Amino acid sequence: MALSNVLETPAAGFNFDNAARNAALEGLFDGGQTPKPMKTGTTIAGVVFKDGVVLGADTRATSSEVVADKMCAKIHHIAPNIYCCGAGTAADTQKTTDLLSSNLTIFSLNSGRNPRVVMAVNILQDMLYRYRGQIGANLILGGVDCTGNHLYTVGPYGSVNKVPYLSMGSGDLAALGILEDGFKPDMELEKAKELVRLAIHAGIMSDLGSGNNIDICVITRQRVDYIRPYQVSEYKDNRKTKYKYRPGTTAVLTEKVVPLKLEVVQESMQRMDTA
Amino acid sequence: MHSTTVVFCKRKLTPVCTGCVVIKKRPNRIFNTVYRKESGRNGITMNTRGLRSQLKDSVPVAGLCPQGAYGVQDSLRSGFTSVKNELLPSHPLELSEKNFQPNQDRMNFSTLRNIQGLHAPLKLQMEYRAARQIQRLPFLQSSNLALDTLRGNDESIGFEDILNDPTQSEMMGEPHMMVEYKLGLL
């Protein structure tokens, strides 16, 4: 029981104090909307090939109808051998993958082993189910570990699917069509990269929420290739970020020098203290 | 079915007879006082207030404990009080998050009991109770290191380590008030 002069420190973790206030505010502004979180309306895709996993993503982040970020990085590093593409609310995917990465780092420091992809999937599943889908993160996890090459998808409620190829996000249907048509088990690296590129490209063309460049991440047993950007969009604008012009850009037409005559009115000397 | 512990009636110094109710009360200390009621019937003692008593079924009623850090109603942030606001949780996750740790513990203990027998959760719970008593003064934030190690929280990071960290909270209770409140003198 609380008294008015005794402080009860709020519990650590999420603070739901503002939920009632938000619900009350929704009704107050008729027509006005509370600010929407930035979503990533995305196309992300992943393919398992002979030597590893290829992950691909577009780079557009939208906030309702406006493009909020043209070079958003959607492929997050989880562990040296595991990478994760995230679709959904941008902040949620970033924070969740950060937490996952920290947990796996602690584990590998404790045990001295490389984390496995199933561990990442299980940690994610527990975390997302605990919050009953309020954390809007649709993730594709891909990685290579001692047991082989794996590709998993985790939904916002914690549902897990293990598949050889998949796509997520708002452009997933278009990408999935390309993947279904072109996927073969045990592909070569170049063919896998091309397939993923085509899939993301289809998503970019058919979906408003996806666009700009394509990022590709190739994970193999020996190394990870994070190619950003793999393909630059042909509609890239050449906007100058610096507006400093070099001297001589503007031609000089005429020059007129007028000397300024000054008279000495008063002269005073102040001794400087140099001690 | 007989349990292994026998409770002695304080008056008669004999094992508890039928219908005799023994109420144990630990002396007041700075840390939490725990009231345990054991009903004895035919020599069987049952702990009727276990972990379940720590579950919170609802947010406290208005008038007794309004929202806000100091227990005073925060009109600027939460608007005018209404009984509905105080009783029902405003967010679907509010209750499940409040009860999350006790529920996890119950689940783990129950699994442990099924696998290893009753002794395992009993011993662990004893250690938990001991670790929970290692606290600083009421107005200071305790690290709960032993409790965290027992629970396994020292090897994982969750939202409770990042968001709303109590060690980083900008408000501190008034020391004398907090100590008096904990001692029950307020």
UniProtKB/TrEMBL annotation, chain B:
Belongs to the POMP/UMP1 family. Pfam families: UMP1. This is Proteasome maturation protein. GO terms for biological process: proteasome assembly. It comes from Etheostoma spectabile (orangethroat darter). GO terms for cellular component: cytoplasm; nucleus. Keywords: Chaperone.
